[in-house]
Amino acid sequence: MKDTLKHRGMRNKLAEILSEKGIGDKQVLDAIKAIPRHLFLDSGFEAHAYQDKAFPIGADQTISQPYTVAFQTELLEVKPGSKILEIGTGSGYQTAILLHLRAKVFTIERQLELFKKTSIFFGKIGYRPKKIIFGDGYKGLAEEAPFDGIIVTAGAPEVPKPLMAQLRVGGRLVIPVGIDDQIMTLYIRKSAKEFEKKEFGSFRFVPLLEDKN
Ligand code: SAH
Hints:
Elements: H1 5-20, H2 26-34, E1 55-58, E2 61-63, H3 66-76, E3 83-87, H4 93-100, E4 104-109, H5 112-125, E5 131-134, E6 147-152, H6 161-165, E7 167-177, E8 182-189, E9 195-203
Parallel strand pairs: 3-4, 3-6, 4-5, 6-7
Antiparallel strand pairs: 1-2, 7-8, 8-9
The structure holds S-adenosyl-L-homocysteine.
């Protein structure tokens, strides 16, 4: 698959739609315009890649809806050089958006099939996260902590404690919390012990699964 002018045109439209839906951060909209989402999908979905919809990516998982990606990215307030931990690599689309914003990205995926597929895809297309890890994101990534931002792209029944602990003071954790549907939740670490919590709208994600071993 290639990236063409037609695809670019569709991305500009998509960015317009997201802006109408309330995404205000120009950098985030520019990232949506830049990243060729159709390359992250199986070829059967190519024609639909720039609709504001989630699609299956294999292993019972989905690529998040562009609005959701933009909303979470906006809440994360990524700056060039920000150290970001992503839980749920999936297709790698959200990872690519973070890389476009010049974040240093560490990303964890627990499905071996997706981990392999996306690692190979990143190599081919030339995207360079700092690390792609096959493992359980519930535990975070203690050896690389603290992070400026942590983004969870699966629905968490509760907020994993290690993720709170691995946030830098001033850092932001963006996590959808809930079982059937999820409330988008932002935690800002105010000090070693204090977190400010803000809640946003309701979203629907595949579940964040904990590996109990
Ligand atoms: N950011 C992805 C969204 C994929 S859906 C994208 O843009 O495509 C959520 C992903 O989280 C799935 O790939 C799922 O396998 C993964 N996941 C679920 N529980 C996890 C866990 N405990 N640790 C790491 N990844 C997890």
